[in-house]
Amino acid sequence: MIDQRGETMSYKVLVVDDDPDVRSFVVTVLEENQYIPLEAEDGVAGLEMIEKYKPDLVILDVLMPRGSGIRLYRKLKTNDHLQSIPVIMFTGIALRSFLKSQKVLDEFDNGTVPEPDIYLEKPVEPEELIEAIRQKLK
């Protein structure tokens, strides 16, 4: 993103994860690479942050005690105003399990939710995370 003076501006990246250590890790990686980190501890707070701050990217955990990442992902990808926000799934849940849960939910509402573009399984090296972020924010 470039401002009116032609200078590079930082992207806002929302980290939604119930584990404070994971949020701290991701925030550190973001700050070291000149991104503006935003944080939410669950899907409910994450949706509020998305609606309020309109981040350029969401890094989303799947399993959280209040407002799962699966529900938040579905809300984002089925909302006309929010579906263009890129999402990186960043979780300890295997991709196969995530996709299986999506198929079960699709059977109930006859909807079609796209698979995540990037799905990173924890733990991940900082370099792999930042490469995924850069790929989504090109």
User: What's the CATH C level?
Assistant: Alpha Beta
Q: DSSP helix count?
A: 5
Helix and strand element order? EHEHEHEHEH
Structural class: alpha/beta
Number of domains: 1
Give the overall pLDDT as a whole number: 86
Main sheet properties = 5 strands, parallel
Helix content: 40-55%
Overall, the morphology is globular
State the assembly state of the protein chains: single chain
User: CATH topology, which one?
Assistant: Rossmann fold
Mind explaining what this structure looks like?
- The protein is an alpha/beta fold.
- It has a single domain (12-136), classed as Response regulator (Rossmann fold, 3-Layer(aba) Sandwich), CATH 3.40.50.2300.
- It is built from 5 helices and 5 strands, in the order E-H-E-H-E-H-E-H-E-H.
- A 5-stranded parallel β-sheet has the order 2-1-3-4-5, with helices on both faces.
- Helix 2 runs parallel beside helix 3.
- The relative contact order is 0.16.
- Residues 2-8 have low confidence and may be disordered.
